[in-house]
Specification:
There is one protein chain. The protein has 64 residues and is mainly alpha-helical. It has a domain of 38 residues. Helices cover 58% and strands 0% of the residues. The protein starts with 9 loop residues before the first helix and ends with a helix. InterPro entries: DUF6887.
Amino acid sequence: MKPDYKNMTRKELKEHLLTHRTDEEAWSFFFEKLSELDPNQGYPPDLSDQEMERIFREKLNQQA
């Protein structure tokens, strides 16, 4: 049965992604939600170093 990503909390989605790293649909949903964040707001404090690095690289690539 397919998980309902829309009804997952952010923590639940992160846990799902950690245990299902190849779930492309879950990653797509995660990145879609991440892109909807207000760019004027700071990032949540529980982002891992890898997530922050990916976000920074993505932002740098958008400016190039």
